[in-house]
Amino acid sequence: MGPETQPTNQPIAREESAGYDRRIQNYIYNAAAHGLYEIRGLGAKRKLPHFDDLVFLGASMSRYPLEGYREKCVTKTVLGTRYASKPIELATPITIAGMSFGSLSANVKEALGLAATEIGTSTTTGDGGMTPEERKSSQTLVYQCLPSRYGFNPDDLRQADAIEIVVGQGAKPGGGGMLLGQKVNERVAGMRTLPEGVDQRSACRHPDWTGPDDLTIKIQELRELTDWEKPIYVKVGASRPYHDVKLAVQAGADVVVVDGMQGGTAATQSVFIEHVGIPTLAALRQAVEALAEMKMTGQVQLIISGGIRTGADVAKALAMGADAVSIGQGALFALGCNRDTYFQAGEHHSAVEDYAALGTAPGFCHHCHTGNCPVGITTQDPILEQRLEPAIAARHLRNYLQTLTMELTTIARAAGKQNVHHLEPEDLAALTLEAAAMARLPLAGTNWIPGW
Amino acid sequence: MDGVMAKSTCFDLKQTPLRQVNQFLHHQVNPADSVTILNPDGAHNLAVGLDLPIAVEIHGHAGYYAAGMNKQARVIIHGNVGTGVAENMMSGRVQVKGFASASAGASAHGGLLVIDGDAGLRCGISLKGGDIVVGGSVGSFTAFMAQAGRIVVCGNAGDAIGDSLYEAVLYVRGEIKSLGADAQFEPMAEADYATVADLLDKAGFSHDPQEFKRIASAKQLYHWNVDANQEY
Fold first, then answer.
1. Are B90 and A153 an interchain contact pair (Cβ–Cβ within 8 Å)?
2. Residue B165: inside a domain, yes or no?
3. ipTM greater than cut 0.85
4. CATH code 3.30.1240.10 for A51-439
5. Chain A residues touching B129 at Cβ < 8 A
């Protein structure tokens, strides 16, 4: 029974409209007052079919589990085996997604690198170029080639471990980056060749190629430039992943990254975040299918991102056919995003008043775009950025990544797998019709896959 | 290096694979060396990623991204080029003796790109500090979102030149079909005449700087919406 038919003791004079509920009323009042759409950070907030709607079946009479703590379960992950002479080798399939210096402070970029290096995974640059801090702190660094080409240069390309051509991102497939003026300080402006304080709207299209045929040549250029050493990833926002993955493979990608609509952003119109793109769950299944049809499973690796939060999410993504996952928002939460306190100079300090100044509260904040992050993550403010100390933050993120990896192996062992990459769709069942249809998995307790 | 003579090398792309030529250009040259490439036959990605002050001459037509991401080198293409010649150049000089296709000099951070003939669409798109001199005309969307640097066009310009410009400045001698969003004509100052004279001289053209018009950003798009805080 849906909420609209639930019995209520409200008199008819107090009946709330489903179509014009108070959320929509507030949206209209706000639009009427400002004449400007809302811009915010993070990802889609609406409830979507997701990995939570799947469960693992676990070992049983016909399946043989592994001992949870003692028996070996391999997490090693190799990316870029198709053409690159130096593929990426990671200790875990959990990588850190591309997030820019500019949207994040230099301290945060350093913390991401330190934690990833300790765990043995990769970090990724963003729409602001590579900072010396992150190159130094990251053992394995993926260098993004974005439409804006801010700070893009051959020296950083040569010192990268892999190259990611960004076609789009899940929060806004079809949109470019955005960094509002308050975050475009002297250093950020300098790296991006922009006037200080300008409301930066990055290009949404690459300047020197316009379609998959051009992309083929662009990928070859980057390979020629770097002597065919480095893996080349192509990242797409999830809109038509079945076709986009095929086109990326055809264009010569070593690795395809598919970012679902739950993927985060530092700043975008909320209408874009909530209404453009498809859920990660649906995108992953289509991407896996595309690779299988091209007989490229295992040759071209698939990284999925967009709302990967827990070890269970990682395990389900791998079981559905991803080779690795990428985490952005989860990593920021591990650093203290939306917490009521920040940890500075050895003690916790309340950030509640600073959230209130932004018109929000801990747990609800999505004001990354303002640059006034109360916990010092999405800021360029010299005072606020000190609220995040790289060594402490890196320890938290390392713990988080370690927890996810342990949860992943726990599930893999329970499913009888000696290697997390051996998880398979047969290990999964769906709890809802939507998830069953999107993931093309049977509804739990049945053999039914809707629409299949 | 002392006492070592600069060496000259010649490759025939009919004989030597592209990858081998590029790797030679990356690892087996010294400053002041010169390299000649014959029979490019429209090959893409020729002489990309150069990182030393060497001289490269390509005899024939090149494909996409000729001399892409160049640093320091002087590259001359005796022919036409495809999309993205000298894209993201950092420094050095690239000259096209013929015509250039789309996105010539895209996102170039530095250096000088000279196109003796015409350039196609989106010449100087996302330019970030490089200079471009076009002897002929340019197509539409020239300097789209260009952030810094100068573009001198000796011929005519197509539609929407200078759309969404930041700090890059454009000089056009001929007719302009239309200006892009937020682009405007501005009066030429002494510094502009000097800039045009200098770039024309470096590119080997002899036009009178007085014949050029200046186009720059009106800066109305720099900030999101000036009325954003308007309350009723």
1. yes
2. yes
3. yes
4. no
5. 193
